[in-house]
Design goal:
Blueprint (H helix, E strand, L loop, with lengths): L1 E7 L7 E4 L14 E6 L6 E3 L4 E4 L10 E9 L4 E11 L5
Parallel strand pairs: 1-7
Antiparallel strand pairs: 2-5, 3-6, 4-5, 6-7
Length: about 100
Protein backbone atom coordinates (compact mmCIF):
# COMPACT_ATOMS: atom_id res chain seq x y z
CA UNK A 1 0.00 0.00 0.00
CA UNK A 2 1.18 3.52 -0.73
CA UNK A 3 -0.14 6.57 1.09
CA UNK A 4 0.08 10.06 -0.44
CA UNK A 5 -0.04 13.20 1.68
CA UNK A 6 0.97 16.83 1.05
CA UNK A 7 2.29 19.27 3.65
CA UNK A 8 3.16 22.97 3.38
CA UNK A 9 6.87 23.73 3.65
CA UNK A 10 6.10 26.29 6.38
CA UNK A 11 4.37 23.67 8.58
CA UNK A 12 5.59 23.94 12.15
CA UNK A 13 7.34 21.03 13.85
CA UNK A 14 4.66 18.85 15.43
CA UNK A 15 2.25 19.27 12.51
CA UNK A 16 0.61 15.91 11.77
CA UNK A 17 0.91 14.96 8.09
CA UNK A 18 -0.99 11.66 8.12
CA UNK A 19 -2.25 9.11 10.64
CA UNK A 20 -1.69 5.43 9.87
CA UNK A 21 -4.15 2.80 11.03
CA UNK A 22 -3.55 -0.92 11.55
CA UNK A 23 -5.73 -3.98 12.01
CA UNK A 24 -4.28 -6.56 14.38
CA UNK A 25 -4.63 -10.16 13.15
CA UNK A 26 -4.34 -11.40 16.74
CA UNK A 27 -7.97 -10.58 17.50
CA UNK A 28 -7.81 -12.62 20.70
CA UNK A 29 -4.88 -10.57 22.01
CA UNK A 30 -4.55 -6.88 22.65
CA UNK A 31 -0.99 -6.03 21.62
CA UNK A 32 0.39 -2.54 21.21
CA UNK A 33 1.60 -1.75 17.71
CA UNK A 34 4.96 -0.05 17.33
CA UNK A 35 5.61 2.17 14.30
CA UNK A 36 9.01 2.99 12.82
CA UNK A 37 10.25 5.09 9.91
CA UNK A 38 12.86 2.76 8.45
CA UNK A 39 13.91 4.64 5.33
CA UNK A 40 13.45 7.57 2.99
CA UNK A 41 14.22 10.33 5.48
CA UNK A 42 18.00 10.58 5.99
CA UNK A 43 17.75 14.01 7.68
CA UNK A 44 14.98 12.88 10.10
CA UNK A 45 12.57 15.60 8.93
CA UNK A 46 9.64 13.44 10.08
CA UNK A 47 8.88 11.24 13.06
CA UNK A 48 6.08 8.84 13.92
CA UNK A 49 4.20 8.52 17.18
CA UNK A 50 2.99 5.19 18.53
CA UNK A 51 -0.51 6.39 17.63
CA UNK A 52 0.52 6.14 13.95
CA UNK A 53 0.75 9.91 13.46
CA UNK A 54 3.51 10.92 11.05
CA UNK A 55 4.51 14.48 11.90
CA UNK A 56 6.96 17.21 10.92
CA UNK A 57 10.03 17.07 13.19
CA UNK A 58 12.16 19.82 11.61
CA UNK A 59 11.56 22.83 9.40
CA UNK A 60 11.06 21.84 5.76
CA UNK A 61 12.62 23.44 2.68
CA UNK A 62 10.90 22.62 -0.61
CA UNK A 63 13.81 24.07 -2.59
CA UNK A 64 16.13 21.47 -1.02
CA UNK A 65 13.77 18.45 -1.03
CA UNK A 66 10.30 18.62 -2.56
CA UNK A 67 9.21 15.03 -1.93
CA UNK A 68 9.83 12.27 0.62
CA UNK A 69 8.98 8.59 0.27
CA UNK A 70 9.08 7.16 3.78
CA UNK A 71 9.33 3.45 4.47
CA UNK A 72 7.17 2.75 7.52
CA UNK A 73 7.09 -0.50 9.47
CA UNK A 74 4.45 -1.49 12.01
CA UNK A 75 4.75 -4.49 14.32
CA UNK A 76 2.97 -5.99 17.28
CA UNK A 77 5.94 -8.25 18.01
CA UNK A 78 4.49 -11.14 15.99
CA UNK A 79 3.29 -9.66 12.72
CA UNK A 80 5.11 -7.03 10.66
CA UNK A 81 3.54 -4.76 8.06
CA UNK A 82 5.25 -2.21 5.84
CA UNK A 83 4.00 0.64 3.70
CA UNK A 84 5.33 3.65 1.86
CA UNK A 85 4.19 7.16 2.75
CA UNK A 86 4.82 9.76 0.03
CA UNK A 87 4.89 13.32 1.35
CA UNK A 88 4.86 16.14 -1.19
CA UNK A 89 6.21 19.42 0.15
CA UNK A 90 4.03 22.33 -1.03
CA UNK A 91 5.58 25.74 -1.70
CA UNK A 92 4.68 28.28 0.98
CA UNK A 93 5.03 31.06 -1.60
CA UNK A 94 2.33 29.56 -3.83
CA UNK A 95 4.69 28.93 -6.75
Amino acid sequence: MRILSPVNEDALPGTVVVTLDTKDRDVDLVSPVDFYITGGDPQSQFQIRQTGEVYVAKHLDRESVNNYVLDVTATDGKFIATTKVTIDILDANGK
